[in-house]
Amino acid sequence: MTSLSASLVRGALSSPFKRAGRPDATVPASRLTRPAAPVAPGLLAAYGRICGFAESGSLPLTYPHVLAFPLTMRLMTGRAFPLPVLGLVHTWIEITPHRAVRPTEPLELAVYADGLTPHRRGTEVTMVTEARVGGELVWESRSGYLSRHPTTDAAASPRPAPDAVGDLPAVAEWRLPGDLGRRYGAVSGDRNPIHLHPLTARLFGFPRAIAHGMWTVARCLAEAGNGAEIRSVRAEFRAPVLLPATVTYAADAAGGSFALRGAKGRVHLAGTVTR
After folding, report:
1. What is the rounded distance in angstroms from the CA atom of residue 237 to the CA atom of residue 10?
2. Residue 153's beta-bridge partner residues?
3. CA torsion, points 126, 132, 135, 137, in degrees to nearest 10?
4. CA-CA distance, 93 to 213, in Å (whole number)?
5. 179/198 Cα distance (integer angstroms)
6. Checking DSSP bridges between strand 107-119 and strand 136-148, what pairing results, if any?
7. Are 138 and 97 a contacting pair, CB within 8 Å?
């Protein structure tokens, strides 16, 4: 957790010197790795409890992302990374488990950036995370992070078309406490100020602290079942969840589409599962 905190400080110091939207910007070619190491059972158990995963069974689908996040932050706060890390918004994630991972298996982790893409609201970088056991690729993910800035690029990504996630039948209702961000940050290491307290969240334009996007994905997947039959997951973060809140988990009967909606039907998260 110390290395992640250091990366957050380094990112805060370096962000003012980086300018998003430079036409000549490129991502660093470096690939950061962590040697194979066992999963800490105490932190894993705490993570499982706050996200709703079963106490036994395979590693939660979202947990390798949490383990690799310090590497991701170290790369994104490095001098060669072109975007300021302050203000980066996690916009989507795709997770592909190649097989179930046992909590006792030591994981080797790797992270790298896979290019910049014009977005209607700025520039988006794709970050790739890989987890291996004994050299075998067992899990990987791709994530989009948006750096917002004015743009007139005609090639920028179009506004997504409306979908039917608002019509998915409700499955469960969850009451989220105001300290959820602090509690999740303690077990994940992601102590971004926007999640911790209303005062620090206001510094970044939020009226209250917001829930971690990765907590919302994890909680939905825990409700859907963390079974080995899941071949891929894609989730899009539509709107922040202001804490405290009451949210509704909704999913179709086949379990292929899911969403997290607010009290007034606002869609916070929309996802699909391939089995």
Report:
1. 26
2. none
3. -60
4. 10
5. 10
6. unpaired
7. yes
Q: φ, ψ for residue 128 (rounded to 5)?
A: -110, 135
State the Cα–Cα distance between residues 75 and 55, nearest whole angstrom. 32
Helix, strand, coil percentages for the chain (3-state, nearest 5): 25, 30, 40
Q: What is the pTM of this model?
A: 0.88
Q: Which residues lie below 8 Å from residue 162, measured CB to CB, with a gap of 6+?
A: none
The token duo for 177 is 């406490």
Model confidence over 125-146: pLDDT tens digits? 999 999 999 999 999 999 999 9
* pLDDT the model gives residue 2: 47
Measure Cα distances from 81 to 11, 114, 237, 248 in Å: 10, 12, 23, 37
> Distances in Å between the alpha carbon of 135 and those of 30, 99, 107, 155, 200?
19, 14, 9, 39, 42
Other Cβ atoms closer than 10 A to 196: 17
